[in-house]
Structure formats: C-alpha cells, structure tokens
Amino acid sequence: MRKLVLLLALCLALPLHAADDFKEIGWESLVPKGWDPTQDLKALLSSGKLKDSDPRAMEALEKMKALWDSAPTEPSLAGARIRLPGFAIPLEHKGNKVTEFLLVPYFGACIHSPPPPANQIVHAASRRPLANLRSMDPVWVSGTLSLQRADTPWGKAGYRLAVDKVAPYEEPKRK
Fold this sequence. Notes:
Layout: H1 2-13, E1 23-24, H2 42-45, H3 55-69, E2 81-94, E3 97-104, E4 122-131, E5 138-146, E6 150-152, E7 155-157, E8 159-168
Parallel strand pairs: 1-2, 4-8
Antiparallel strand pairs: 2-3, 2-5, 3-4, 5-8, 6-7
C-alpha cells in the first residue's frame, strides 16, 4: 500500500507533458489532403489574361475570397501539440506586449490583399503577455492547436493555437 501511495504521489507531481513534446509541422500539414481551391476557379480564369477592370476578374477574386475564407481545416490536428514557424501579426496590444496574434506562412500575408486561405492563418493566444513581438517577426510558436475559426481585421483564421512558447525563428538543424 505504501508503494502505491508513493507511486501515486510521483505521478501527480509530474507534468502531463514534457517541456518540448511538440510535433514540428509545416504549413502543408494544415491543409486537408485533396483540397484544391483552384479547381473551382479554373473555369473563370481559363479565358486567358483578364484586366483588373474586367467583371470576370472581379468575380474570380470574390469567388476566391469566399473559397479561402471557408477553407477546410485538418481534423486530425484537433488537440495536437505542435511547433510551427511563421510570421507574427499582433492583434491585441498592451503597451509593447502582445497576447493575441496571427501566425501566417509568408512575409506580408494578411497585410497585403487577399489574405491566405483560412487554413493557412492561425489565431494564436498567449496567457502570458509577450514582449517586443512586432508585425512580421519570424518566429517558432509551440502550443495546442484547435479547429476554432476567428474573423479578424486581417483575415479569417481556421485554427486557434493556445501558445505555450514563442521563440525567434532559426533555421532547423540539418540531420
């Protein structure tokens, strides 16, 4: 009985997750296999070069925006503890500290129009305010991913990440 109590006490004292048990993923992992947003646009764009003032170009842009805003997320990632590189776009400021930001796959995403598809925008939220996180800072973000959409001023996010750690981006070490 004494051994059982000791074992139980040890188990309760251990953290549920090791400090760095995040699975490193790439942005392609956020896109469900088989999703091709260009399929629906090919008919509109097959007529050759369109000028910006062409109503068909405007129709194609609006249709693309609607497709990207409703882009599907990858269900197998719900609850996954991940590590993902990207560029930060701060949303919530308190002085020089940020608690919410978007994580996007390439420099300039969301600042230029149109924003990426929803499955390529992650709404990141940190319980601890993060100091000195500026727009378009390249970072590694680790945390728990959920399939929760968010409508932000910079675009529609398909994912939400409960942030555990943010670090400056560094190239991965070659194996």
